[in-house]
Amino acid sequence: xxxxxxxxxxxxVADGARxxxxxxxxxxxxxxxxDLLVVVSAMAGETDRLLSLGKNISQRPNPRELDVLLATxxxxxxxxxxxxxxxxxxxxxxxxxxxxxxxxxxxxxxxxILAIDEDKLRDTLARGCIPVVAGFQGVDAxxxxxxxxxxxxxxxxxxxxxxxxxxxxxxxxxxDGVYTTDPRMVPEARRLARITFEEMLELASLGSxxxxxxxxxxxxxxxxxxxxxxTFKEGAGTLITYEDTAVEAAIVSGIAFNRDEAEITxxxxxxxxxxxxxxxxxxxxxxxxxxxxxxNVARGGRLDFSFTIHRNDYPQTIDIxxxxxxxIGAEQVVGNDRVVKISIVGxxxxxxxxxxxxxxxxxxxxxxxxxxxxxxxxxxxxxVEEKHLELGVRTLHAAFRLHEPPQQxxxxxxxxxxxxxxxxxx
Length: 426
Ligand code: ADP
Ligand code: ASP
Ligand code: MG
Description:
Layout: E1 3-8, H1 16-31, E2 35-40, H2 46-57, H3 63-70, H4 72-87, E3 92-95, E4 102-104, E5 113-116, H5 119-126, E6 130-134, E7 137-139, E8 145-147, H6 153-163, E9 168-173, E10 194-196, H7 197-205, H8 213-221, E11 226-230, E12 238-241, H9 245-248, E13 254-270, H10 275-285, E14 290-295, E15 302-310, H11 314-328, E16 332-345, H12 355-365, E17 372-376, E18 379-385, H13 389-399, H14 407-420
Parallel strand pairs: 1-2, 1-9, 2-6, 3-6, 9-11, 10-12
Antiparallel strand pairs: 4-5, 7-8, 11-12, 13-15, 13-16, 14-15, 16-18, 17-18
Helix pairs in contact: 1-4, 6-8, 7-8, 10-11, 12-13
The chain binds adenosine-5'-diphosphate, aspartic acid (ASP) and magnesium ion.
């Protein structure tokens, strides 16, 4: 008998009928002899609805109160699912984050889980009862309700799986696994049977919303077997795993994109020590996260300095730059808040040359100009104009032939075919 943590996302619990379907799935897993703990999100659209209720009253609601408001979404779903499970003859008990002591820091709306007191959950499981835990929420040391950032129910599930040393954490959603890119953007995208933690972490941090980044971090750190599956379609989904040869066969495993980018350039900055600090110090002081940074080689003692930020932070960052222009010594600040970032990710890039030039060639053939580039061992990100997002993603998806199974699968399949034909192995 295994202990399985199952998490069901917003679309999976969107209405009474879907909650009934989730309850049927939980019953089936129970009948198969497993111990289960279930984490649920708010019903689809509910967190957005609550957020706009708050924002209609104040543009900047107090984050503590926002968390009290947002956490109600998950409280509705846990009760409804527990009711549906009991109706099916199973013993179930709903818990808010606070009731099972999911302790977080006090960073409202983006809190981090610090500790989980698993005793209550273990007792509940020992009684043969299914705990149904609200995702996305916790409590800080002072007992205030906190939330974990959008998509945070994934993190709740993985953290509970880690604390209880569950045999598997299953993330049930509206797609049947992790795809080579968002299947809503590229219909030819292919489901990956496996992906490494490292690649998944990059994809999540570069904008792929199928798993919250902290969930992947947790799973990697605590070695939680993590699987993404569909609530609506049977199948093995995608296993997030440690590196293995099957995964290494692909140079590029996936493409992520982020629409919420903005770029700022300081023109004619003096090439003297401390320039980068004079530019970015005030940005950091305003709690604005800087992503890509590009500094040109100086000509005539001056250089251009560009960086990207979240689009929401654009007006404030422009104001900060304008206010500091003289202190920085720059001639001019220019910006563009209609840019996006497209990234290709794959552990196979470590051992292959020429991947970046393939990216540049493919984009240039479609007349897509690249505004910025950043690379790491296993990713290449480019910033392009917003209007080129879809074409850029599709072009790269096709250029790296991501719609086709990786070569190794080809070899295995052709070996199988040869066997059937009494070929090389027969
Ligand atoms: P849930 O509400 O179940 O948490 P999310 O909307 O957070 O679901 O995540 C699932 C969605 O993630 C999919 O509907 C899909 O559009 C999107 N997505 C983005 N990138 C990928 C990818 N590489 N593979 C699969 N889905 C992706
Ligand atoms: N309900 C929250 C959100 O919409 C958390 C989650 O769904 O994971 O972001
Ligand atoms: Mg999600």
